[in-house]
Amino acid sequence: MRNKRLRSSQKKGDHGRPNLTDFISRMPDDVLVMILSRLPIKRAVVTSSLSTRWRFVWRNLIQLNFDGTESLYKIANHEKHWELEIYKYFNQVNGVINGYNYPRVQDFLIRFDLDYTYSDDIDEWIQFALDKKVEKLELDLLDNCYSIRDPAENYDFALPSSSAMVGQTLSLKNLSLTGVNLNEPTLNKILKNSPHLRTLYMYGSELFPHILVGGQDIKLKHLKLVSCSGFESISLYGFDLVSFTYCGPEIEFHLTDLPKLKELDIGEVSLGLENNVFSQISSCALSLQVLILDMWSPKKGLDVNAIIKLPNVKKLMLVMGAEEDDSLLEFTSIAQACPSLETFSISLHWYAPMKKRRKVRHVAAPHLHEHLKVLEIIGYYGRISDLELAVYVIDNAVALKKIIIDPICHASDGGLTAEDFLKREKAA
Question: Do residues 110 and 178 touch, judged by C-beta distance below 8 A?
Fold first, then answer.
């Protein structure tokens, strides 16, 4: 009996423990692929050298994420490593693409600081991804700090012109472009030939003067444009858009026949007579549930009479730039236009944060806020103007349950040290 036990333990490996490597290798391919999908792609590929059993397993991965963030940090600290790191990155991407034979790719990510000088290689990578029926395509071609480069140096996104792509329906569901330019014909082709496209995100990209997106054949649900340049207006009409975000210089908006638009985040906007944002979003007033407005020139004044009723808005966020200790109570009239409001957030960015000695004003709202439960003030500094906003809600919100105060100092005046900021937070 003792000898049998000894032989049994020897089969399990040293010290009677099972041989885990053999145990894992005997698992079905689906399980092994699931394990490899948890690893960075370069480590997953290295497993091909373990044994003949592992040699081709990585080729069944459907998520090819070439995240070069680690290399970008090395380059940021030691620029002399640039040529070596980019050589290694290109070798990694091309090596995987050349050895990959699975019929489709679900996710394809390129993340590295690449400009137009690498267009030929990037074109080939996009060709590969589209040939593999990619669903989520992300090109993040800026550095790890997302520093926007001169748009003329960006890579220009172009659909492959090969005969195989002519008339081809794209499988895209999610397209994310960072530091990538997009012209009008290409955008139209993507939208018209991508019946499953639901999300389009662009950051630091150059576009064309007048963006026009609409029609029942457009299936886009979420559109986000951040720090993009080159355009003056955007018109969205006649499709089931759910959320739209625009962050950048002031432009013209034309939003019509968007019955399912629930979330709207726009800035920089003007609330004065010269370009009143409410007149531009009035057609969406009934469907909106979340509204975020970035206002960087409150001193231009608020045209209270131009504010429209927003009957279904449950969350309102106002991002405001202000000077000195000017009263901001007039902006509560926007909250008053939202009878269903549940969360009211205010983010304050002060150009010259200082305090004035004056009495706190108490303002009675024409109608009490019956549903307002949460007030959040970001950038609270303890100025009278800050306090007035909090007092206004306390006085007029009968269902108030929570006040969130974030005392972090958002100030653009120069010369403040880290110690100065900490003192201001403590004072707030």
Answer: no
The contacts of residue 32 (CB under 8 Å, 6+ apart) are 24, 54, 57
Query: How far does the chain reach from its first CA to its final CA, in angstroms?
Result: 78
**Host domain of residue 132:** 64-206
Cα separation values, 394 from 208, 334, 361, Å = 46, 17, 13
φ/ψ of 368, rounded to 5, equals -65, 150
140/156 same-domain check: yes
Instruction: Kindly list the averaged pLDDT for each block of 10 residues, start to end, along the chain of length 428.
Output: 40 47 59 60 55 52 83 76 87 86 88 95 94 95 87 92 62 97 94 95 96 94 95 94 92 92 84 66 95 74 82 95 77 94 91 69 89 94 87 95 85 66 74
pTM (two decimals)? 0.83
Structure tokens at 169: 């329906």
Instruction: Mark whether 38 and 125 lie in a shared domain.
Output: no
